[in-house]
Amino acid sequence: MLGNYKAAYEEHNRYKIVSDSIFNMEKEKKITQTAMQYEFDKKEAATRAEQEKKRCDSTGSPEKQKLVRNGFIGGFVLVLLFSGLLYHQRNKIKSTARSSAMNCCSIFSRKRWLKNLKPKARY
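User: That's the sequence. What structure does it adopt?
Assistant: Structure tokens below.
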């Protein structure tokens, strides 16, 4: 058998072909497994994201709820302050109008009283 290089060469070629086929099948199996795992993870992540979105839409995030609540409280306080200011100004204007009306009335009544005090000229 020594010296049969042609048969040894052919056996070596068959060995390489079988070896490459086995290697390729293993690699193909691993690639398929990796691709399937990727698809599964992708679908699972999409499902989780969808569930999280539904949960956030129904309840809203705690930070968002807190922000909205604080906004309403702040707005209500501002409205109360503005209403109080308007009420105070309204009362101030009314009291000023009353006092000026009283002053006018007293001035007119004094003028009438003074006219009555003047002696009428008799000719």
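The mean pLDDT is 84.
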